[in-house]
Amino acid sequence: MNETATATSITDLQRFLLESTPTVPVYQFLPALLGTALLCWLLGAFYQRWGTSLSNRESFSRNFVAIGMTTMLVITIVKSSLALSLGLVGALSIVRFRTAIKEPEELAYLFLTIGVGLGLGANQWLPTLTAFVVILGVLWLRARNAAVDEGTNLYLTVRHRGAGATTLTGITRALQEHSSGLDLKRFDEMEDGLEVSYRVRFESFEQLERAKSALAALAGVHSLSFVDQEGIL
Predict the structure, then answer these.
(1) Could you report the per-residue pLDDT of 158-197, keeping only the tens digit for each?
(2) CA trace torsion 52, 56, 59, 60 (10° rounding)
């Protein structure tokens, strides 16, 4: 009796797994797909403007829309089918993600992109939109505070013709007098002179102008190059 009941239960389970197919109304699927694309596009624009990653943010953010829409499609298809859900687990077990994530911030934005796809794929509009707005608000406040704290940071390269033991000291002293922060990043000494690279912090354009004038007044300074830290990427 028990064996018969067990066999019947297994048969019913097999029939359920084989016959259960997802039914996704188009009027629900299409708005969710377009909403995912819009939110991921906004997230990409936000990341380009307020992100602090040293990688190419524009190139990286182009993947947000595709990742979000793909995630939304997968969740929409499998959410109403146990068989497809189990199949997805098996498929993902052989997938290996080998692209290196260089910075934690990139991982955070990827998780947010996937979260948008998951939320709208599960038809959870209100929690997804609320979380999206709140998270972007927190990231915006953090980025604004970091910008205020850091001031304007530039990479400065000074090329000097003529060797001398006091050359580096003179350049560094001139910058220290007319900047709010100074870090020596590179120093190259050549036969006809030297090349020095700094990361310099300025609080205003007037301070930058005074530093430039002080460096230009030094004998032997051949050229100056100020580059925004984002502009070298």
Answers:
(1) 887 765 545 777 888 888 888 877 888 777 777 777 788 8
(2) -50
Largest CA distance in the chain: 103
Domains of the chain, residue spans:
21-148, 152-228
226, pLDDT greater than 60: yes
Per the CB < 8 A criterion, the answer to whether 102 and 55 are in contact is: yes
Residue 195 bridge partners (DSSP) = 159, 188
CATH number given to 152-228? 3.30.70.260
The residue count for the chain: 233
Decide if 65 contacts 37 (C-beta within 8 A).
Answer: yes
* DSSP letters for 9-28: HHHHHHHHHHH------HHH
What residues does 199 pair with on adjacent strands?
155, 183
pTM higher than 0.85: no
